[in-house]
Amino acid sequence: MVDTGARSAGEADETERDTGAATRDGSGTERGWRRRSVLGALGAGTVFPLLGGVAAAHGGQTGDVETVADFTEPNEPENLTIDDDGHKYLTMAQTGEIRVLPANETFAVLPSGGGFLTGIVADDDRDVLYAALASYNTPGSFTHGLWRVLADGTTELVTPLPPDTFLNGLLMEDGRLLVTDSTAGTIYTVSPTGEFSVWLQDPLLAPPPGGTLGANGLALEDGLFVANTDAGRIVRVPIEPDGSAGEPTVFVEDGALEGADGIVFDGQDHLYVAVNRQDTLVHVDADRALTTLATDADGLDFPSDVAFGTTGTEQQELFVTNFAFGSTDLPRDPALLKLYVGTTGDVE
Fold first, then answer.
1. By CB count within 10 A, which of 24, 133, 158, 304 is most buried?
2. What is the DSSP letter of 252?
């Protein structure tokens, strides 16, 4: 797939339904980004129906799924991060564009080539974005790797990574970046200056026999948690005092999680999982019991990432990207959605 470059909201016939300020305030002051973990995958499978309201983590009910913004192909949002002022930054996988809402403007464009723009995360100071680009190297260039995006939209390659990797989940941890290679079941560690090495490679992170996608979305909560997409598995990896990886173990594994993509914890140690190939959003409580919060009947179309809002009432709302790329639904419905879940996110 060839990079189509930036597309304006009018050219893409996109409808923005959120309201708020633009990326910069009237004085030109740049806003910081909210730290988060992220990522994406492909497939098809079973739907677990949602019957009436589902109990939220705090004991109440979740709200209806609402559309924040609709997009048109090839503008398909794969990953998401939200800043402290509530601005949403979405990666458009095929075009390489980073779109910012509610302004619904192009913030930056990376050379996606024949691949995908996947994970996006902020640094610890929340003034620089990092993005994972699986471009497989556009002919004549070296673009496959981790990119830095400054507050003015300027982009630069931090470090190229092996072009046979599928860079996907991305997370900032104690000043370094962790990024998943979904095809090899590997997690790389990358310093802000570009030095990289294998942090962990383990069978629990690899695709199962016959599968293609293993380690994917990442989240921090008393260790590193990793979604294994094809295995329907969430893996916990202890982080040792020296920053190395401890022995990984299975946190939860279930058929309802086959297609697990982006993951996020709330402040009560409950996990939310975007299950792309089943068009579901699944809640995993502290006892590892699973509840389906929403399905395709609620508007989910290959959901690939989840993030808690950061301002006002949005702090108890979960935002979900409809990647729609791997969807069997026609017409596809790439979008940003949200639903009330009655608890706030666990974000530093």
1. 304
2. E
